[in-house]
Amino acid sequence: MIVLAVESSCDETAVALVEDGRRVLTDCISSQVDLHRIYGGVVPEIASRKHIEAIYGLADQALREAGLTRGQIDAVAVTYAPGLIGAVLVGVNFAKAAALSLGVPLIPVHHIRGHIAANYLAYPELEPPFLCLVVSGGHTMLVDVADYTKMKILGTTLDDAAGECFDKVARVLDMPYPGGAALDRRAQAGREGRYPLPRARAGANPLDMSFSGLKTAAINLIHNARQKGEEIVVEDLCADFSAAVSDTLVPRAMEALKGTGYKKLAVAGGVAANSRIRRDILAAAEQAGAAVYMPPLKLCGDNGAMIGAQGYYEYLAGHVADMSLNAYATKSILGEAL
């Protein structure tokens, strides 16, 4: 089954062709990073306009690169939630038109489910059940993936997402957008221990997380140093900040893994590219005797292939939509489109 997959939830326009949920035939991406960098972050209206300009050409490019015709497309999958509402609408409307004109099923895919499915592309042997640590720009959660479309949230952040904190601290340090990647590069050259930063435990659920206090502590530290004319060793601060985020994520992931009894841990989302988090996850999982599945860096960020992978399994579960499908800025990973 060949799925044409569309992703447009933020500032990456992506169209991919995926076969049977596991094989990427082509994955075409048009990035807007250079455009938004001058503003220090994504401008939603500009992102939506650029999606409109790119999406039709990307679909034709994907077919050419895969050597396929439109008639060989069996279904169209699309990110319908969550994301910047204008941006998501562009993808949804394109997918609806494509599915209608081709006479094929329309498959709605939750963006975070897509991130989890990126692991199926990188690891053909991976099958549920497993635990997944989701760390993206707007989401941080521990998900029990009982089946391809049956999931349970075991723990989540009660305030800011880890990726959001990386980006905001990087911006205060005058790093270029996207800040999380820039902060990670500086952290790799730093030494830990210079700047003590908090590790929060929040709420009654021991698997829940909180990052707002850490973010505030780091930003206050930077502002106070500047007001006093004190020099900040940026590399060391980035190293300490990265360690604090990892110290919040990794122990909870291990605790959740133990609670489920699984021996498989997947990591998903853009922040999964962070070198400190990847290193700590690998070390902790090895000690626990668990296998780790982390997609390559090109599949950590937003892409169309992950939507095609999850779309295949959503289709098998009967999760298809009609032309009334809408886009949503926020929606639980547990919710269905219909």
Word description of this protein:
The protein is an alpha/beta fold and 338 residues long. The chain is 45% helix and 18% strand. The protein has 11 helices and 10 strands. It has helices at 33-37, 44-66, 85-102, 111-122, 162-172, 179-187, 212-227, 234-260, 275-288, 297-300, 304-316; strands at 2-7, 12-19, 23-31, 75-81, 106-110, 130-135, 140-145, 151-156, 264-268, 291-293. The strands form 2 sheets. Strands 3-2-1-4-5 form a 5-stranded mixed β-sheet, sandwiched between helices. Helix 5 (162-172) packs across helix 6 and helix 6 crosses helix 8 (234-260). The longest helix is centred in the C-terminal third of the chain and has 27 residues, at 234-260. The chain is globular. The two termini are 22 Å apart.
List keywords for this structure.
45% helix, alpha/beta, 338 residues, 11 helices, 18% strand, five-stranded mixed beta sheet, globular
What's the gyration radius in Å? Answer: 20 Å
Largest sheet: 5 strands, mixed
Overall pLDDT score: 95
| Shape annotation | globular
Record the strand order, biggest sheet. 3-2-1-4-5
Concise description?
This protein is an alpha/beta fold and 338 residues long.
List the helices and strands and how they pair.
Blueprint: E1 2-7, E2 12-19, E3 23-31, H1 33-37, H2 44-66, E4 75-81, H3 85-102, E5 106-110, H4 111-122, E6 130-135, E7 140-145, E8 151-156, H5 162-172, H6 179-187, H7 212-227, H8 234-260, E9 264-268, H9 275-288, E10 291-293, H10 297-300, H11 304-316
Parallel strand pairs: 1-4, 4-5, 6-9, 9-10
Antiparallel strand pairs: 1-2, 2-3, 6-7, 7-8
